[in-house]
Each structure stands twice: as structure tokens, then as C-alpha cells.
Task: inverse folding
């Protein structure tokens, strides 16, 4: 079994995907174990000394001034979990839940949270054995962290709540019994250590960032197919043009287009057919490139947050200090995920406009209207463009920032919150919509190439075209289009187009 070592400091996006999607096991490093033990020893010392420390010997939020006696600490921690499990809505996907568990393990491994090693090991066992708590997707304000959804994760650890185990939904107690993992009784600081953090928004966001980077490459391939279908002018992608502006994403997008379209017999040069193309073809590097820069920024931010201590209070063992701060506040990620939503939306926006040029006989340079012969009798791709337009319009609504909203909570003790988890969830929905729009463009571009006559595609576009045509044939007359659209969406999800093109021409940027 492949194994990833967890130390609280070095988790990256690639390892995150290996663990969550490919079921690689995790193991704490010796240094992490040492740090966790030291942190716990300090908590035990404070409890023994009856020292007043937020979340250890006091209540929570507005109740931070209520002192809790030593014998009440276990009741305090259990009450915290069961009272905070107020999630609503559909369950998060199992892979997202795995991400939540992994990120919580990694944060606790830093040794700033005061959790017992045996409690942390329980969560490690659950992840490795596939006990996945059912966590409702809604109910988090994104500060104090993802309290409500994380409480649902902890319910299973204490033998409550519900879980999925080996594909079956059951009580948390039964799932733990079947996986042979003992349930636990939380003690001082542990409940707070487990639920006070940004791991739900970060897990959702990590998947969006990873999948969006791949969609960005797919969008370059889709655009290249459309360029060929419309006999687009490739001079606009010349390296010199992009170097004098010097934005790295733009330079990368132009390089991708040149490599994907290499040796194509379907493109043109300026002046051969027309002097210049419309912006949706000519400005592909500028638009796609701006989104690529966004995604690069998000990858950096998400990897910082993956390795962050985001609970409260934080324990600093060298100084024997416990400091009540605000690392649980999701604002750094909330703003980032709002930015991510805009970056993804723009990939879909320009894709839909390219689709419009393909289906509109006034814009398609000689292609039949709506990409079908016997138009009128057949509607062809007419309503495909409608569907794409509906999705990009929905994206515009969803791209409204969540991070600019705040509703005070806990009797105004927690009077500014991030809504970061809402921002992450919106970005995930935008990603799903945008992938479908790109799928529609690919379908239309392949149809247009067939109708214009394939004179020889580029090194990358030929591979993409063949993959699509292995599963989806040219449309000769009207058929149920959503079947083809879903098939192409599945092709993009599998990443076979990007993987196959990269194998032939090298890594896309």
C-alpha cells in the first residue's frame, strides 16, 4: 500500500489527491508524534493547575468567561460536538470528506492544538480504513472555522452520527465497530481542536483548484479545435507578442496553442483569408492566461492553508504559552475562492462565445447554420448553445463574492465572519458548469471540422478529435443531444484528452 507521511508542514496538492482519490494511506512522522505529545502535556499541566485558558477551562464563544471545573471538561467537550452538529443540506462527496479528515490530521500534527495522540490516531485509522462521516454541505460561516460540518465529522469518532463504510450508509457507531476502530471519549481541549478550523472550505477548494488546472489545459485544446474549425489566424499566438507583455499565464497559453496546433493544415496566417480574427480567437492567450495566473495563485494559497494551524487557542510548547487568536477566520481563503470562481467563469464565458461563432452562419466563415446539413428540418447545435448560455449566465450569478458578506454570530462575540465555505462551494458549482460548456465547445468544434473537411489537424488537436470521435459520431440528423454532451463531459472528467496530448507533445502549461 502506498503511504504518505504527515508532519503538519509539507502536504501538497498532489499528495492530497493521492490520499483522497487514490486511497493512499497516511502515517504520522516521528517528529509529528513528538510535537503532539508535547502539546498535550502542556494542556494537562494547565488543567491540573486550574489555569483559566479559553476552550480548555472555559466555555466557548460568548461563554468564554464561564469557568469549567476539571471534572466537567469531558462533558464540556462532548456537549461542544453534539450542540455544534447543525449542518444542513446534501452530504459532501466522500472524497471531500476524506480531504476534510486529512487536512484536520495534518493541522493537528503540527503540535499546536493539544489533542491526545490516541485521539489523532483514531482519525488516522478512520481515513486509512475508509470510515467516512456524513457531513452536510451547509451551515458554516467560515469563522470560527467550519464548526458545524467539522462537528459532524467528530460525531462518528465518539460513536454518534452517521457514516459511509464500504459504500453503505450506517450509524457512526456501527461503522466504527465494523472497521474495528474503538470510539473515543473526548477530554479537555480536544473537541475544540477537532472542529475549530478551515478544513472543510480548504478541502472543497483543493479539489476545485486541482480539477480547474486540468480544465484550463482542456480549454486550450478546445479553443485550438475551434481555431481550426474557423480557419483561425495563428500569428496572434506568436511568442514575441506575448513576451512583450510578460504575463506568465498569457505566455503559457500562447505556447500551448502553438504546440497543440503544430503542423495543422486547418489554420491560416494573417492576410490569407482575413486580416484579423475576432477577440474570442485572437485573445485566447490573454483571457485563458489571466485565468491560469489566477489558478497558480490559488494553488499557492491552498498549499499554505493545507499546512496551517487554524484552531484556537494555539499552544506554543517552547514558550509554554496558550494564545487565543483568530487563525480560524477563513477570510484569506474566502477571498481566494471568490477570485477562483471568477477565473473559472471566464474560461466558460469565452468558450461559449467561441461556440456561438461556430453555430452562427453569420460568424462561422462558411459553415452551415447550427452545424447541421438540412437546417430547418434539423436544429443541430442550436439548443446546445442555449444550454451553454444558460450555464455561463448562472456562473455570473454564482461568481458574486461570498467574502463581502458577514452576519455576526455568538451574541456579537464573533462579529465578522468569512463565508469562505460558501465561496468554495460556489467555485465547485461554477467548475461543473464550466466543464460542461467546454465539452459543448469541443463537440461543436469536432462537428465543424467534419463539415468543413478535415485537411489535417495539429499534433494535439488530432489526438483530442480522435478521442471524441471514438465515442461520439458526427451528427448527420437530429438526435438527443444531452447524451452526447454528457459523454463529452465524462471524457473531460477522465482527463484522457489532456493526458494523451501531453504524452505526445509534452506537458501543457
Result:
Amino acid at each position: 500500500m502506498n503511504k504518505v507521511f504527515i508532519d503538519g508542514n509539507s502536504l501538497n496538492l498532489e499528495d492530497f489527491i493521492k490520499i483522497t482519490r487514490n486511497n493512499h494511506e497516511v502515517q504520522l512522522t516521528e517528529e509529528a508524534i513528538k510535537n503532539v505529545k508535547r502539546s498535550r502535556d502542556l494542556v494537562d499541566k494547565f488543567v491540573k493547575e486550574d489555569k483559566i485558558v479559553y476552550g480548555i477551562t472555559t466555555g466557548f464563544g460568548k461563554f468564554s468567561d464561564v469557568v469549567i471545573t476539571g471534572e466537567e471538561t469531558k462533558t464540556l467537550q462532548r456537549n461542544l460536538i453534539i450542540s455544534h452538529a447543525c449542518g444542513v443540506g446534501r452530504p459532501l462527496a466522500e472524497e471531500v470528506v476524506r480531504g476534510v479528515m486529512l487536512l484536520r490530521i495534518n493541522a493537528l500534527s503540527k503540535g499546536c492544538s493539544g489533542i491526545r495522540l490516541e485521539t489523532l490516531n483514531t482519525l488516522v485509522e478512520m481515513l486509512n480504513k475508509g470510515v467516512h462521516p456524513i457531513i452536510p454541505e451547509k451551515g458554516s460561516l467560515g469563522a470560527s472555522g467550519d464548526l458545524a460540518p467539522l462537528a459532524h465529522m467528530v460525531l462518528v469518532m465518539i460513536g454518534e452520527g452517521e457514516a459511509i463504510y464500504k459504500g453503505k450508509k450506517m450509524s457512526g457507531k456501527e461503522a466504527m465497530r465494523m472497521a474495528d476502530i474503538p470510539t473515543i471519549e473526548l477530554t479537555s481541549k480536544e473537541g475544540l481542536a477537532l472542529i475549530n478550523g478551515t478544513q472543510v472550505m480548504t478541502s472543497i477548494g483543493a479539489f476545485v483548484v486541482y480539477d480547474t488546472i486540468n480544465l484550463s489545459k482542456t480549454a486550450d485544446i478546445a479553443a485550438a479545435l475551434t481555431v481550426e474549425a474557423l480557419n483561425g489566424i495563428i500569428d496572434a499566438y506568436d511568442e514575441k507578442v506575448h513576451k512583450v507583455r510578460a504575463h506568465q499565464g498569457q505566455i503559457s497559453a500562447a505556447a500551448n496553442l502553438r504546440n497543440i496546433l503544430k503542423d495543422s493544415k486547418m489554420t491560416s496566417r494573417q492576410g490569407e483569408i482575413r486580416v484579423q480574427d475576432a477577440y474570442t480567437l485572437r485573445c485566447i492567450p490573454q483571457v485563458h492566461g489571466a485565468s491560469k495566473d489566477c489558478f497558480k495563485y490559488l494553488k499557492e494559497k491552498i498549499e499554505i492553508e493545507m499546512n496551517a494551524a487554524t484552531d484556537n487557542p494555539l499552544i506554543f510548547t517552547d514558550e509554554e504559552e496558550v494564545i487565543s487568536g483568530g487563525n480560524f477566520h477563513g477570510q484569506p481563503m474566502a477571498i481566494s475562492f471568490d477570485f477562483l470562481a471568477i477565473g473559472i467563469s471566464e474560461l466558460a464565458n469565452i468558450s461559449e462565445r467561441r461556440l456561438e461563432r461556430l453555430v452562427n452562419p453569420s460568424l462561422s466563415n462558411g459553415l452551415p447554420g447550427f452545424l447541421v446539413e438540412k437546417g430547418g428540418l434539423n436544429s443541430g447545435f442550436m439548443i446546445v448553445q442555449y444550454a451553454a448560455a444558460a450555464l455561463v449566465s448562472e456562473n455570473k450569478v454564482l461568481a458574486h463574492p461570498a467574502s463581502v458578506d458577514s452576519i455576526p454570530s455568538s451574541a456579537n462575540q464573533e462579529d465578522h465572519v468569512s463565508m469562505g465555505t460558501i465561496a468554495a462551494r460556489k467555485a465547485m458549482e461554477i467548475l461543473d458548469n464550466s466543464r460542461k460548456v467546454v465539452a459543448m465547445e469541443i463537440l461543436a468544434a469536432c462537428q465543424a471540422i467534419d463539415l468543413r473537411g478535415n485537411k489535417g489537424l495539429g499534433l494535439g488537436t488530432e489526438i483530442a478529435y480522435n478521442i471524441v470521435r471514438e465515442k461520439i459520431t458526427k451528427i448527420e440528423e437530429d438526435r438527443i443531444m444531452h447524451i452526447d454532451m454528457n459523454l463529452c463531459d465524462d471524457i473531460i472528467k477522465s482527463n484522457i484528452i489532456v493526458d494523451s496530448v501531453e504524452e505526445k507533445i509534452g506537458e501543457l502549461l
About this structure: The domain at 205-505 is CATH 1.20.200.10 (Fumarase C; Chain A, domain 2). DSSP finds 19 helices and nine strands in the chain.
